[in-house]
Write a structure and sequence with these properties.
There is one protein chain. It is built from 14 helices and 24 strands. Strands 14-17-18-13-12-20-21 form a seven-stranded mixed beta sheet, with helices on both faces. Strands 9-8-7-10-11-23 form a six-stranded mixed beta sheet, sandwiched between helices. The protein has a three-stranded antiparallel beta sheet with strand order 5-6-24, with no helix packed on it. Helix 2 crosses helix 6, helix 3 crosses helix 4 and helix 9 packs across helix 10. The relative contact order is 0.14. The mean pLDDT is 97. The chain binds nicotinamide-adenine-dinucleotide. The site of nicotinamide-adenine-dinucleotide (NAD) has 28 residues, from helix 7 and helix 8. Keywords: Oxidoreductase. It comes from Cytobacillus depressus.
Length: 478
């Protein structure tokens, strides 16, 4: 389906479709052009739904075993091409190659898991009120699903939605982020190679997401929208879904608190923050955004943490030993810098030099701030960059109250060696995901998702499959 290696047409109905205009994809580490994808209009957006709608009638009737077999084949093709796709992912998104490979494996684990789970879409029988009645509960695929994904995990955000959708018997129209669309087309190329039938998976890209996605939001044939991205766009889509009462799943922004209790293993806590904070240069929705350290261990924690941060190498993700790649664009760099300036102006102490190197890439060195207070921007707005703000607390209750004092509720972290504290914190934090002594909690079999304004619904595990299934009951007189 590809023309040149990384110049793609739209992928609709197993065909490559050209548009008049292309979007050039830039490497954030070098500013070089990596490839190009089509700039679709409303016309192509509708074509994609036509294809998915027509494919739904046969795909939804396949057996779970047939769908499982195709998902397994797709998994195998991706596994074979992991290194090739990971290199493209690093070039278009910036993350270090080892992280890109890690993302590919994580992304692919959803195909494997849902290939198996497709076979466990069970119904129920419910005792009726009279002897001549039977009540049967069945699960059926919701229909055509619109999948809209962000740039920070160009592979995983797609498979986390598409694997359960296909396992359930749904067909999909996918709109990946315009900054990192190449990985999405490569995943579709793998699906093509695996023999996923025409119209089951369709990919379109555009420079005008609002305008193009409106076609999907207004089309009654699209029964569900599953979105990962910023909270404002998620709210907009939720409003637009109301007119045709589509099902909605949202994975939105976070502002994760990372609490380090007085009895924490400091070395483990330092490793946990490094892993959570600086993975993907801090551009993850579950990344530690606010670090709360018990005042009694602040000095010890800070000196170990700064020593660890000094060991992180910033550079092109394709280079050896790089642990922090570039940020995605100029806006991202400016946002982090604004948060640093605001914090320093309000009294925060800057421990690491925050030099920005943007002459040949959107690079930013990791920054550590202490003496941080909750009125600073970095404690109120998602940072999405390599800035680690550290604040102290006195009591567990104070830590939880401050951690919960936000409209967000995606991920939270607690480091403690006390079982009692582990339970107490995890039960009182208003977050969909709590990592206890664990800075990397995401896996295919667990229900990833947020409370409050961080989202609706869950991705992963058997909960993730329910999002793509309608429940029908049949009351039968016999
Ligand atoms: P974004 O909301 O700008 O874009 C996400 C997607 O929505 C892109 O494909 C974009 O083209 C599309 N989009 C933009 N405007 C649209 C509109 N008006 N109508 C329809 N679609 C539109 O977000 P982003 O900057 O790409 O991603 C960063 C955000 O994503 C962060 O807030 C981050 O926390 C969040 N995120 C959340 C999760 C999660 O699982 N909760 C995972 C990754 C990222």
């Amino acid at each position: 389906m590809t023309k040149n290696t990384l110049d793609f047409g739209l992928y609709i109905n197993r065909e490559s479709i050209d548009t008049a205009d292309q979007i050039l994809v830039q490497n954030p580490a070098t500013f070089e052009t990596v490839g190009s994808v089509p700039n679709a209009t409303q016309k192509e957006a509708k074509l994609a739904v036509d294809a998915a709608y027509s494919a739904f009638s046969s795909w939804s009737k396949t057996t779970a075993y047939e769908r499982a077999e195709l998902l397994e084949k797709w998994f195998a093709v991706i596994e074979k091409r992991t290194d090739e796709i990971a290199a493209v992912l690093t070039k278009e998104q910036g993350k270090p190659l080892s992280e890109a490979k890690g993302e590919m494996n994580y992304a692919n684990s959803f195909l494997k898991w849902y290939a198996e789970e497709a076979k466990r879409i069970y119904g129920e029988t419910i005792p009726a009120l009279s002897g001549n009645k039977r009540i049967l509960v069945q699960k059926q695929p919701v229909g055509v699903v619109a999948v809209i994904t962000p740039w920070n995990f160009p592979a995983a955000m797609i498979t986390r939605k598409v694997a359960p959708a296909l396992a359930a018997g749904c067909t999909v129209v996918i709109k990946p982020a315009e900054l990192t669309p190449l990985t999405a087309y490569l995943l579709a190329d793998c699906a093509h190679e695996a023999g996923i039938p025409a119209g089951v998976i369709n990919v379109v890209t555009t420079k005008n997401p609002g305008e193009m996605v409106d076609v999907w939001m207004e089309d009654p044939r699209v029964k569900k929208v599953t979105f990962t991205g910023s909270t404002p766009v998620g709210k907009l889509l939720m409003r637009k879904a109301a007119d045709t009462v589509k099902k909605v799943s949202l994975e939105l922004g976070g502002l994760a608190p990372f609490i380090i209790a007085e009895d924490a293993d400091i070395e483990e806590a330092v490793n946990g923050v490094i892993q959570s904070k600086f993975r993907n240069a801090g551009q993850t929705c579950i990344c530690a955004n606010r670090i709360y350290v018990h005042e009694s261990i602040k000095d010890e924690f800070l000196s170990s943490f700064i020593a660890a941060v000094k060991g992180l190498k910033v550079g092109n993700g394709l280079d050896e030993n790089v642990s922090i790649g570039p940020l995605i664009d100029e806006r991202a760099v400016a946002k982090v810098q604004k948060q640093i300036d605001d914090a320093v102006a309000k009294g925060a102490v800057l421990h690491e030099d925050s030099t920005i190197h943007t002459d040949k890439g959107y690079f930013m060195k990791p920054v550590v701030l202490s003496n941080v207070t909750d009125d600073m921007q970095c404690m109120q707005e998602e940072t999405f960059g390599p800035l680690a703000p550290i604040s102290t607390y006195r009591t567990d209750l104070e830590a939880v109250e401050r951690a919960n004092a936000t409209p967000f509720g995606l991920a939270a972290y607690v480091y403690t060696q006390s079982l009692k504290k582990a339970f107490w914190f995890s039960e009182n934090l208003e977050y969909g995901i709590v990592g206890v002594n664990d800075g990397a909690p995401s896996v295919a079999q667990a229900p990833f998702g947020g409370m409050k304004e961080s989202g609706l619904g869950r991705e992963g595990g058997h909960y993730g499959l329910d999002e793509f299934l309608e429940i029908k009951y049949v009351s039968m007189k016999v």
